[in-house]
Write the structure tokens for this entry.
Amino acid sequence: MHKGKRRKKRKPIAALLFMGVLLGIVAYTVRIPAPVTMGMERQEESIKESVGISNVRLQVPLFCQYPSLPTGCEATAAAMALQYWGEEVTPEEVAGWLPASRDFYTCEGVDYGPNPEKEFAGDPFTTDSYGCYAPVIVEAINKNSTRCQAQDCSGEPLSDLFGYISQGTPVLIWATVDMEPARVGNTWTLENGEVFTWIAGEHCLVLVGYEDGLVYLNDPYTGQQACYEEETVEQRYEELGCQAVLVYTAA
């Protein structure tokens, strides 16, 4: 053993030089790359950013509309988004921000009623009412919130709304209860003479996340977070006219 080590140390200098040159030629021929530690770190950061964009879940507070607001899903959803930004407001208080509804009445055989794009149709504190659409919630928040602003994003594809979520901003969307197919509801005439048909099953939820074809929503109906396939949510969202409201901090 000892003799072997001595012989290894006593290799002629010329032989060592020859081996060094040979290894250099081989390295050049196969083009051995230099270490790319910085490049790998940047690649890992890029992957993490990519995962963050495709896998988002915002921690938005959960409220149930029952028992106080049996038809007040819109106000309850808005309260969730406002509380997310630190505004101490209850669903009942948000419901109080909504403009008072015109009464339903019949004149010369024609049924007249309120316009859900301008006011809440009915009373959110009762069980036999309807609801309201995106413009009403936008106006209510912008007039009454001390911390937040709202923007009507209606018409944007559901996939585009994910961009707001990835930036940390919750979005209210209109769909249906339990994502059941929308149905034709009652019909009445608006003050301007236009015939309006309510979409039965109308429901407002808070879009809080998405991941691998799944969409996560805070549901006022149950007070829990629900998960549905993106295709189903997209269908219901479109059936309700692609209505959406972005709620963000004004600070």
